## 1
Amino acid sequence: MLQVKDIHTYYGNIQALKGISIEIKEGEICTLIGSNGAGKTTLLRTIQGLIRPRQGDIYFEGKSIKSVPPEKIVSDLHIAQSPEGRMIFPRMTVFENLEMGAFSRRNKEGIKSDLEYVLNLFPRLRERLEQKGGTLSGGEQQMLAIGRALMSRPRLLLLDEPSMGLAPNLVKEIFKLIKQINQEKHTTILLVEQNAKKALEVADSCYVLRTGKIELEGSAKELQSNEEVRKAYLGEE
Ligand code: ATP
């Protein structure tokens, strides 16, 4: 479905990605793990068209998307992101935030049924539809950011650290919901996570990033039992 080929991305003179290639198959959950500053967010932003790579290309269903504007990546290709730090609209209500996620869609019935789906997935949002986004708790904002991304009916969903800052019971819940979205909606997911243990439990495939390069790749199962991964990312001795 998505192929990233030898991407080099810079911030000014600083090179954040140094020749990254990854492949995501339709229907799978692929996870990207790696330490702080490894380039995970930069890779998601490059796929989303928010930063242009200086070298390399990105193909979605065989076609290069390197020059497609970010809004068209969402509206025409159905690649949506739930960004790190949530980035919801704080002065808009929960309902308005969710509406924004469907900004490019015209099919009212489809939007309504997706809204129902999101509110069933996150009942807390249903209780707070008229509340301003900025007054939600951290966990609720996280749900809203994921819900908003789902409102664009993504075929590929990019999730940047969805479990960040959540209480342990909510972390468990979020990973369960990620799996549910993947299975019920046949949504392909690229999941960036600090919580490597949980990410590897739900994912099919995995890439480990280190200072802008792919250090390891394989099935989630393989990497779960990889000695290096266990020591560096799963906190085992
Ligand atoms: P984390 O897990 O800490 O969020 P990450 O793997 O997502 O890390 P990135 O945010 O992609 O890492 O950052 C990769 C590198 O690019 C880092 O060295 C970071 O300092 C640098 N970087 C990120 N954004 C910018 C920016 N706007 N300007 C300059 N450098 C940046």
## 2
Amino acid sequence: AAKRAGGNRLQVFTDDLRVPVQERIAAEARLRRALASDPRYTLPLWFQPVVSTATGRIIGAEALVRMRTEQGNVLAPGHFIGVAEETGMIVPLGEHVLRSAIEHLQHWSDWLGYVSVNVSPRQLAEADFVPMVAALLAEYPYIDPSRLVLEVTETALISSTVDVSERLALLKQLGVRVALDDFGTGYSSLTWLKSLPADVVKLDRSFVAGLADDPRKASIISAVLWLAHSLGMSTIAEGVEEFSDWEALREAGCPAVQGYFFSKPLPAPEFDRMLVAGTTVADVVNSTFGGVH
Ligand code: C2E
Ligand code: MG
Ligand code: MG
Ligand code: MG
């Protein structure tokens, strides 16, 4: 696929947590501008397809926020979500993400099953969160609420000050689905998993990458698949980068996967093309291995 000039450049920084003070201040200022609808800084959503192992087709997408700066650079969330959480700007940011995600879902209604959105603990702890989601859904009467999936992390749930199970239960009453993100990186207490009203478990990529060559990872994955299934939950494997991992997951009975193997997160126009073209795993494999026509 030809790359358009200019756009879609992803600026890569290190993972060093000791971000210099000036950089933090700059990040905060940029975020403030973006949230104030300063057109020089925007917060577009990128979309990563989720693919069914049964059909090889796109069944949904995860919306992942980006920040486009005045210079046209695109920043990954690692560069501003932390600041957004610390300053409380995650609340308006999160609302923007939800609204934009639902707008896109409405636009892609005939092609896309669902959209999932990441929700930070701070958002979930807001007294207004559930009413806000309800009001938003009411604005889109043609979108069935079950087509919206909210992703929360285990660690977020544990550290929260509010009764998260109760809040998730209220969201479920709206018809929204809930996914446990990065599953396996937190405590993963089995009792606790049972008590959480989640519909989907997203297996963290640390268990997924290289699983085809690692019997221990394969065992963990089988166990989680079995457990999730027994509790009536579905499973999505994250971070599937290799064809061998895709095959291993499919054979293990994992219903859906997400990862660079199929596609990186894409800006909306590129995701749109992929969706409308009906791109399948077979198409991706054929183009990767030089086109078996
Ligand atoms: P996440 O929700 O676990 O999202 C998956 C991350 O893994 C994304 O990074 C995605 O680009 C990356 N990824 C997907 N497939 C692969 C793969 O095959 N290999 C590898 N190595 N990575 C893969 P991204 O977009 O940089 O987002 C990072 C995190 O930022 C997300 O992790 C999520 O926790 C957070 N985030 C993103 N958007 C939002 C948002 O709108 N609100 C909130 N609160 N958090 C967000
Ligand atoms: Mg703006
Ligand atoms: Mg996520
Ligand atoms: Mg994740």
## 3
Amino acid sequence: VEHFFRSEDLKGKKAIVTAGPTYEAIDPVRFIGNHSSGKMGFAIAEELYLRGADVILITGPTSQQVAYKGIQVKHVVSADEMYDAAVHAFDGAAIAVMSAAVADYKPVQAAVEKIKKKQEAWSIDMVKNKDILLQLGQQKKAGQFLMGFALETHNEKENALAKLKTKNADAIVLNSLNDKDAGFGVDTNTVTIFHQSGNETKVSLKPKKEVASDIVSFIIKHLHV
Ligand code: CTP
Ligand code: CA
């Protein structure tokens, strides 16, 4: 028996979260991926659940395990699979948080057989993946709160604000990579949340679980009712 307290802040509300990396197949044994641990996305999904939401977590390959059985987990591998799952789940969702580190490009075509080593140099033709956040921003209806993430190494604020606008998000969480205790793989994070109203909320360095709690409190505060 699990013992935990769920508040009623988000009772009856559907929330979807994307998390983790995506893997883009090169051939049956190789892929292009990234170092996303999924920790931030899982923590946000768990926090949304504890605040009473019906949560669907769409995750790429990670070693994370969800803490509560009540969270519906959909496992995907590629960006295309994550796109289909997210677009499908967005219907009727009050909240969508896109925290996945989606691969920007995929090989034009995955080879059916394992590619053999031949010439000294080798390159792979790649095409852009569909942008899930951009798509949800386009299909968003009144009453749906859409949050994205941004990972920047320079012109952080400017780039985060550009993503907020282009992708029609309600808020963007900027991950600061300039702090060695923040970001990929580690248990702590420091972020700034930019809201479409122009307000800016800074969350100082703390455990990812606490950052998730602050992010969900921010969402609840800015939910259009
Ligand atoms: N995102 C997405 N689908 C993609 C690429 C990104 O849903 N194919 C989402 C991410 O989950 C994140 C936001 O878009 O919430 C920003 O991702 P990021 O990689 O920072 O920005 P990009 O738009 O991909 O631009 P760039 O990588 O060039 O900075
Ligand atoms: Ca990207």
